[in-house]
Design a protein that fits this description.
With about 290 residues, the protein is an alpha+beta fold. It is built from 6 helices and 15 strands. Strands 11-12-10-14-13 form a 5-stranded mixed sheet, with helices on one face. Strands 6-5-9-15 form a 4-stranded antiparallel sheet, covered by helices on one side. A two-stranded antiparallel ribbon has the order 1-2. One of its GO terms (molecular function) is DNA ligase (ATP) activity.
């Protein structure tokens, strides 16, 4: 069944609203759209100006999924698009028409496509669609079993200190999956990937039993991999407040440092869509600019 709606002056047609996208929890497409609509006031500032990559799950989280960077031809004309070079494109494109989620209608449009996960780079485009220098530094902390987010929190605290010593203020969030991420406003003092790699290697040297800075799987059991590579301009990271395609409708959730310091069990920092809506109502956007 298709349902015509009007969102901030834009006409949209929603479909299959009763389709269950998270089977273990009966979480439907209507609930996905509702979540993104309600979280929009704090989510949109983190998406605005950033070329969008989505991960779509048309048949739910247990079905096939696919990443989508290029906005297809049927994308409504009112969705902002920017054409950007695509070096190394797997489809041999010279450029890609990226959507940019600057408003609620665009966010609802993508939610209706079962775009559960929203991924963006660490840079924005200007009003003319020209790429700007990176404004964010990110470290993705990925635990190698049996390590969990508990070990990630310990590494995050060490990383926070290292960044603070260099005048950078870190902001933590869960990945919504196994690990977590640290962000800091970036001042372009140097190439961000090189800076992040050097800092990761420094922490690996200081904490060799807890930290690894290389991607090789064999090096990671029981340690936390500090993935510095997501600072590459061609890469993206899951956006704050994005849903994740897990068994439960978990969310990449901004945290307080008190929560990081107090984490004792992996379940301490697992938040669903309902949890995050309640957190934001109570605390506002914990991921606002420092």
């Amino acid at each position: 069944m298709k349902v015509p709606v009007r969102v901030d002056g834009r006409e949209l047609t929603l479909s299959n609203l009763d389709k269950i996208l998270y089977p273990d929890h009966g979480f439907t497409k209507a609930e996905v759209i509702d979540y993104y609509s309600r979280i929009a006031p704090v989510l949109l500032p983190h998406l605005q100006g950033r070329p969008l990559t989505v991960k779509r799950y048309p048949n739910g989280v247990t079905g096939q999924s696919f990443f989508e960077k290029n906005a297809p031809e049927h994308t409504p004309a009112w969705v902002r698009r920017v054409n950007l070079p695509a070096p190394g494109s797997t489809k041999n494109r010279e450029s890609i028409d990226f959507a940019v989620v600057d408003d609620l209608p665009t966010l609802v449009y993508y939610a209706n496509l079962a775009a559960l996960e929203l991924h963006v780079p660490q840079w924005r485009v200007d009003g003319d669609g020209t790429a700007l220098p990176p404004d964010t530094l990110v470290f993705d902390l990925d635990p190698g079993a049996p390590a969990t987010i508990v070990e990630c929190c310990a590494v995050a605290l060490a990383l926070r200190e290292a960044l603070a010593a260099e005048g950078l203020t870190a902001r933590p969030k869960t990945s919504g999956s196994k690990g977590m991420q640290l962000y800091a406003d970036w001042d372009c003092r140097e190439e961000p990937s090189a800076y992040a790699k050097r800092l990761a290697q420094r922490l690996e040297k200081a904490h060799p039993k807890e930290v690894v800075s290389v991607m090789a799987r064999k090096a990671r059991p029981g340690k936390v991999f500090i993935d510095w590579s997501q600072n590459n301009p061609a890469k993206t990271t899951v956006a704050p407040y994005s849903l994740r395609a897990r068994e439960r409708p978990t969310v990449s959730t901004p945290l307080t440092w008190e929560e990081v310091e107090g984490c004792e069990h992996a379940d301490d920092l697992v938040f669903t869509a309902a949890d995050v809506l309640a957190r934001v109502e109570k605390r506002g956007d914990l991921f606002g600019r420092a």
